[in-house]
């Protein structure tokens, strides 16, 4: 019997099948779209010849599609005919059939007005309008889908190639990615969800666990108490057209919010609802993984989850329960497609999860690399700015380099039915070389040696407006993080107490708004280990659930050790640095305005242009600490925008703005003593063994090395530096170079 597990290999988790390690990349080819089936034998042959050995094949349960194994078996047989040493992971959907939906109305998402909104449920194999969206919290769905899963797995085990099946990947919800298709709130009708019996049971379980059995009864908060989460952004960030003589609109408030924050002093039950909503879905993922792990621990289990965990109201986000899944011990990998903004040549594909937290738990973060190529239709090709084979090769190099340097697993996903995105001899040759590079990389010491850690809190999304999280987290991760000129690791804040988490010189706290006493102590102790620099973004620690009055400005001062004040009014976040005040300020442009997103936002999937909402601070957080250095001031009110203070245990930097760009981050990292590889804002990935550059502009690029080294470009097989601590070369915008670095 084939044994497949996730094992530590040279420092980080890896796929190990019958004792052999399989580095990235894997592949998924769409062979079916509804009734259209197209399996290209030659395509699989060429992918196999290029070195790809793990394939995710799309499949349904027999419960949903009685003939589900017919197409799956055909595809598997063709794959193994031309690539007999390949391994298969079925991507198996757990959607219920229409009859189940009709027979189980209590298990369908219900709204406060008694309605159940019809749902267009679609995935690769079918597209159907159903009478509602099944609740991803439903215990009955878990049990019925679980039986169907086991039934289908048993049938797969009877197939002649069963020994090539090494795991199962679970799909559910919208586009199989475990989100709800219908919105959680309908402001036009005033109806809100989920009031179904299925979710109400899970909500009560959550409350019993948090507060004690029966002490707090489940009450779905009304739409008015969740006002802060969407209406605040809609009204403030996108106000009606104003003229010079128009009065400025007042910030909306219905008594449930403190600016952008939920007033948890009175409405903690609203935050509880959101938390339970997310955790219920996470519990379902764990449920299915446990079913299979208990039956056969030598199979890999995985699922989509976490794509939209950063926002409560993006349709009906329910994917901020990642840690529950990671800590369960039953799930080997979670997957997401890369961020769709900024993917064009000259940009980069941002990641959606805290991959380094996965490593601490011997779990794989899997990226679905649905990288667009010049083979797209003219509309999507234009959106992605992919026009030539040269564009394709350079972007494929860029995305692969990220996976090697940041040590991510991934699969190439060809969404064209029958394939077409990567079906070119030039791409096959590229994949073959990349497989060689990946195997070489896995034989080295894979520990990255990064000096910067970005820290994220998945629970804080429940108590702050959507736009705030977009600015503090998503715009930084999607547009700035790879332009700092130094590698960055990403963690959930919970890991600051984990003894296996490495020490860093700079910690950037994205969105740590809600922290208990214990969590605050753990973070400060970690910072004090090596007198690190901590950059705290907007309102850090403003909520302390350990206190009777959780929301209080004093909590910020306690956490950052910088005395703070707040003005509960709306102000612009824009600020300028003060020359001569601090090393960070001295290294930045004197007349430049910082604190707001000023890049061109490009969406590589949507036909509808996306525009970043007007940025604002509400409330304004600023320091009045006499012992802190004021390095920058807000333009609109002259309040301190950036303050720096030596606390005795660590260096504390408080940034009152929500957004911070790559230039500011680079200089903060330099102040913290971090090594800076590149100064000009090109896309850069690096670890101990490799440096990759994707040019955002045309010109001379200089790379400064942390030690004297020999440097070879892996595709050209050309030496660029010998016994050097820096080297320079010319690049054209949108091109990629990847270097192997060997210290001497």
Q: Could you explain the architecture of this structure?
A:
This protein has 744 residues and is α/β, with parallel strands linked by helices. The chain folds into 3 domains: 4-184 and 278-442, TIM Barrel; 452-671, Class I glutamine amidotransferase (GATase) domain (Rossmann fold, 3-Layer(aba) Sandwich); 697-743, no CATH class. It is built from 17 helices and 34 strands. The strands form 9 sheets. It has an 8-stranded parallel sheet with strand order 4-19-18-17-16-11-8-7. An 8-stranded mixed sheet has the order 21-20-22-23-29-28-27-25. Strand 7 (54-60), helix 2 and strand 8 (87-93) form a beta-alpha-beta unit. Helix 4 runs parallel beside helix 7 (264-295) and helix 11 runs parallel beside helix 12 (425-442).
List keywords for this structure.
TIM Barrel, 17 helices, 8-stranded mixed beta sheet, 8-stranded parallel beta sheet, about 750 residues, Rossmann fold, alpha/beta, globular, 3 domains, about 25% helix
CATH topology of the largest domain: TIM Barrel
Query: Strands of the largest sheet, in order across it?
Result: 4-19-18-17-16-11-8-7
Question: What is the architecture of the largest domain at the second tier of CATH?
Answer: Alpha-Beta Barrel
Q: Let me know the CATH homologous superfamily of the largest domain.
A: Glycosidases
The poorly predicted ranges are none
